């Protein structure tokens, strides 16, 4: 009961802050906030690498944050990121990584034989998880910013609602109808029925949202992108679960009362945001 109360209190504080940051922070300040979040995620990811010394983990987070800050300062105009070659390369790498991640999850624990003992691979996996997420958040925030400051914010909120509704739908449908395990050796609670229920719930939310908010500029491909994003968000969650299971960790940290760590809250979004940005901006921008 105490944990539930903590979750509710924390959510009631964080959700308004997230929405305020999305809609009212200019791109540069928004980027700084995402850098802080990504640095904390890097601090948590260092456990998966096998780094337990706190000083080593802090250095990892600080170095990652400095690299992201340098990346952000290298862009001349944060409201025109959709044509930046480096952004395109990073989002493309993110798309490839999440295809690889799906294979790693589906074949776990066999796949762990190839990466569990490799520090370099686990560092690379962390970079490919967090860096495209940062770029995806920044580039979505910048969409048509010169026309309307809120368009990009609506895009990000749309993806968040997709992920949250899919997660909620999967929970209830899984408990009611779940029989076939999705990835039993990674997360025994997730079922195929739950994922389908989550997709149905997300579809309803997506339809209501697109009717209510007149900023979704690619309705022809919106359904396709949304379905892919919902599926990939499930594997974003499963991927973090896979690394936690391999490392013997229950929560990535206890930074967020009642919710675990930063990675525990954004695991689905680390997959959904760069994939949505990659699909909509790289392939369906016309």
From TrEMBL:
<protein>
    <recommendedName>
        <fullName>Phosphatidate cytidylyltransferase</fullName>
        <ecNumber>2.7.7.41</ecNumber>
    </recommendedName>
</protein>
<feature type="transmembrane region" description="Helical">
    <location>
        <begin position="87"/>
        <end position="107"/>
    </location>
</feature>
<keyword id="KW-0548">Nucleotidyltransferase</keyword>
<dbReference type="Pfam" id="PF01148">
    <property type="entry name" value="CTP_transf_1"/>
</dbReference>
<dbReference type="GO" id="GO:0016024">
    <property type="term" value="P:CDP-diacylglycerol biosynthetic process"/>
</dbReference>
<feature type="transmembrane region" description="Helical">
    <location>
        <begin position="7"/>
        <end position="24"/>
    </location>
</feature>
<comment type="pathway">
    <text>Phospholipid metabolism; CDP-diacylglycerol biosynthesis; CDP-diacylglycerol from sn-glycerol 3-phosphate: step 3/3.</text>
</comment>
<keyword id="KW-1208">Phospholipid metabolism</keyword>
<comment type="similarity">
    <text>Belongs to the CDS family.</text>
</comment>
<keyword id="KW-0444">Lipid biosynthesis</keyword>
<keyword id="KW-0808">Transferase</keyword>
<keyword id="KW-0472">Membrane</keyword>
<keyword id="KW-0443">Lipid metabolism</keyword>
<keyword id="KW-0812">Transmembrane</keyword>
<feature type="transmembrane region" description="Helical">
    <location>
        <begin position="119"/>
        <end position="140"/>
    </location>
</feature>
<feature type="transmembrane region" description="Helical">
    <location>
        <begin position="58"/>
        <end position="75"/>
    </location>
</feature>
<feature type="transmembrane region" description="Helical">
    <location>
        <begin position="152"/>
        <end position="173"/>
    </location>
</feature>
<dbReference type="InterPro" id="IPR000374">
    <property type="entry name" value="PC_trans"/>
</dbReference>
<feature type="transmembrane region" description="Helical">
    <location>
        <begin position="221"/>
        <end position="238"/>
    </location>
</feature>
<dbReference type="GO" id="GO:0004605">
    <property type="term" value="F:phosphatidate cytidylyltransferase activity"/>
</dbReference>
<keyword id="KW-1003">Cell membrane</keyword>
<comment type="pathway">
    <text>Lipid metabolism.</text>
</comment>
<keyword id="KW-1133">Transmembrane helix</keyword>
<keyword id="KW-0594">Phospholipid biosynthesis</keyword>
<feature type="transmembrane region" description="Helical">
    <location>
        <begin position="194"/>
        <end position="215"/>
    </location>
</feature>
<dbReference type="GO" id="GO:0005886">
    <property type="term" value="C:plasma membrane"/>
</dbReference>
């Amino acid at each position: 009961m105490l944990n539930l109360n903590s979750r509710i209190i924390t959510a009631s504080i964080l959700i308004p802050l997230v929405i305020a940051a999305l809609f009212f922070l200019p791109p540069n300040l928004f980027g700084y906030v995402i850098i802080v979040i990504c640095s904390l995620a890097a601090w948590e990811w260092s456990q998966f690498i096998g780094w337990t010394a706190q000083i080593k983990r802090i250095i990892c987070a600080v170095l990652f944050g400095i690299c992201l800050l340098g990346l952000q300062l290298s862009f001349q105009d944060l409201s025109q990121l959709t044509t930046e070659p480096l952004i395109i390369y990073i989002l493309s790498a993110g798309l490839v990584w999440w295809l690889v991640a799906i294979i790693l999850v589906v074949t776990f624990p066999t796949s762990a034989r190839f990466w569990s003992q490799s520090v370099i691979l686990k560092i690379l996996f962390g970079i490919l998880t967090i860096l495209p997420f940062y770029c995806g958040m920044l580039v979505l925030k910048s969409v048509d910013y010169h026309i309307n400051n809120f368009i990009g914010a609506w895009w990000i909120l749309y993806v968040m609602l997709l992920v949250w509704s899919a997660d909620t739908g999967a929970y209830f449908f899984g408990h009611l109808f779940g029989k076939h395990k999705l990835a039993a050796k990674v997360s025994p609670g997730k079922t195929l029925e739950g994922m389908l229920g989550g997709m149905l719930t997300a579809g309803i939310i997506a339809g209501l949202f697109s009717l209510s908010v007149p900023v979704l500029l690619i309705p022809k491909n919106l359904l396709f992108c949304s379905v892919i994003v919902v599926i990939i968000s499930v594997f974003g969650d499963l991927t973090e679960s896979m690394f936690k299971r391999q490392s013997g960790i229950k929560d990535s940290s206890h930074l967020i009362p009642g919710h675990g760590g930063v990675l525990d809250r954004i695991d689905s979004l680390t997959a959904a945001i760069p994939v949505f940005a990659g699909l909509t901006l790289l392939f369906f921008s016309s």
